[in-house]
Every structure is written in C-alpha cells, then in structure tokens.
Amino acid sequence: MEINGKTRVCGLIGNPVEHTLSPMIHNTLAEMFGHNLVYVPFPVETGRVAEAVAGASALGILGLNVTVPYKSEVISCLREVDSLAASIGAVNTLVSVRGGYKGYNTDMEGLYRAMTTEGIPLEGEEILLLGAGGASRAVAYLCAIKGAKRVYLLNRTLDKAQKVAQEVNRHAGRDVIFPMALADYDSLPDQKFLAIQGTSVGLFPHADQAVIEDEGFYGRIHTGFDLIYTPWETRFMKLVKKSGGRAYNGLKMLLYQGVIAYELWNDVEVSEKEAQIVYEKLKAHFAGETD
Ligand code: ATR
C-alpha cells in the first residue's frame, strides 16, 4: 500500500508500546481489505492521556487502541462509552465519533469470539476463573453478561475475589460469581468445569509455574483457557492436557480483540478465513520462541 494524501491513521496508545503485535494485526487486515490505512504505536507519557486523545481527535485519527496503563484512565477523556466497557471500567478501543471518541472493550468481546470460534460456550456453563486482578475481573463481568450459570472465582487473596464477586453480582442482578480462596479448591463440587486462567502466573519468563500444581485439580477441568500466550503452551495448559482436557492459549483473544476493533473502525466484517490468515502470521511470529 502506498501512503498518500488519503491515508487514514489508526494506532495504539500506552506505555510501553514497543512490543505490541497490534500493528501486525491491523496492517495485515488493511492490506487484505485494500484499505488505505496505517496503524502505528504511540507511546504516551504519564499524565498526558487526555492530551493524546484530544490531539488524536484534532488530527482526525480514525481509531485507537489503548493498552496498559491507560485502559481505565482514558474513560474520562471520551464522548461515549459502550455498555460492556462501562460495566468493566476498562476501554481498549476508541472509535472516532463527532467531537471525540467512543470507547469499547474489545478485549472481552475478543475473548468471547475466540471461545465461540473454538466451540467453547459461556452460556449456561459452570466455570472456574483463576485470579481476581484486572484481567479476571473483566472476565467475571463477561461470564455474567453472557449468561454463565456459575463462576467459582478462585484467588490467592480471598478478599479480592469477594470484592469482585460482590460487584459483578450486583451488576448482574443475580448470584453468579462465587468467591473462593485458591487453597480451598478441594471443596469445589465434584464435576468437570471450563477453567479460565486469568492470573499472571506462568507468564514468560516464569514458564515453569502454575497457580495450582495438584493433578487432582486438573482432573476437574474439561477445557482450560489461559489468557497468556507467552509461552505458547503454559504450565497450566500442560497440566490440563496431562489430565485429559483440551487447552487453549490467549493468542486468539489477542487476534479477535484486534479484529473487532478493525471492524468497528472500518465498518466491515472480517470473516473467519481472513482472521485465520492474521492468526497464522501472529503464530509464525512466535515460532522458535515457544518455550
Ligand atoms: P492483571 O491486571 O493482569 O490481572 P493484577 O491485577 O496484578 O494483574 O492481578 C494478578 C493476579 O494474579 C491476581 O489475581 C493475583 O492474586 P492476588 O490477588 O492474591 O495477588 C494473581 N497472582 C499473582 N501471583 C500469584 C501467585 N504467585 N500465586 C497465586 N496468584 C497469583
């Protein structure tokens, strides 16, 4: 694609942004669709998010992704916020609207689409959710909103799990999140679960770690979904597989959060076939780095 007078710009604001894979996702999609669009990273200094968003709007930047540490802070700089993003309190995608931007949370929509394409439903499911930090809190909202039957929220610090459960249950208007201390997993009902791993344990370079080591625990999991994708196969995934379950990493979540943002910016639908081409490119990036 030739950059010319009609080229539109999208990008990523965050700090740091050097290691982002989003340019690969969006520039590949732009090429595939023949869109005259470029996607670039913009490192934003602490305290300058509002200026960045106002400046982006003034420059006519079509859309932005937002990453750590600005996903919550950016909300006060927006014209509108989509309801899922507002409930979660985190925005990772800005779409240009009159006078500014509307915020979305395509991280969670992306996780949902990744799970749907893998044939993993949330509706009516009994789920184990590991962790109660920012990522797991968002997943708890997603599970509640998408109609999960029950989510056992296991966290090392029980207080945090209780706080998240209270908040999400209030929002959902039903008891759907059940907080538990991680150490009490033995008292879970005797059945098989979908488990979502939302802690930072096992993330590169600590690839040899998992929140729970006991094989007895993994025997309760029919499907394990780790939000981590570095390493390619986490210790959590290995333990799930060893006990006969299916296991997935978080790369498809990364893929689909990008795909959904691209769809919002360009008013197009990205087919599964097109998404798969981007996925193969992301996957190739990790070839040779897979722990
Ligand atoms: P994020 O925003 O990525 O979710 P976070 O808010 O720092 O990151 O949350 C990290 C999560 O990993 C928390 O659930 C944390 O448990 P605590 O709330 O008890 O701190 C969990 N975590 C981190 N290290 C852990 C460890 N060694 N064992 C168990 N859980 C751990």
Summarize it.
With 291 residues, this protein is α/β, with parallel strands linked by helices. The chain is built from 10 helices and 12 strands.
What can you see in these coordinates?
- The protein is of the alpha/beta class.
- It has two domains: 137 residues, Leucine Dehydrogenase, chain A, domain 1 (Rossmann fold), CATH 3.40.50.10860; 141 residues, 3-Layer(aba) Sandwich (Rossmann fold), CATH 3.40.50.720.
- 38% of the residues lie in helices and 21% in strands.
- The chain contains ten helices and twelve strands.
- The strands form two sheets. A six-stranded mixed beta sheet has the order 2-1-3-5-6-4, with helices on both faces. Strands 9-8-7-10-11-12 form a six-stranded parallel beta sheet, with helices on both faces.
- Helix 1 runs antiparallel to helix 10 and helix 5 packs parallel to helix 6.
- The chain is globular, with a radius of gyration of 19 Å.
- The structure holds 2'-monophosphoadenosine-5'-diphosphate (ATR).
- The site of 2'-monophosphoadenosine-5'-diphosphate (ATR) has 14 residues, from helix 5.
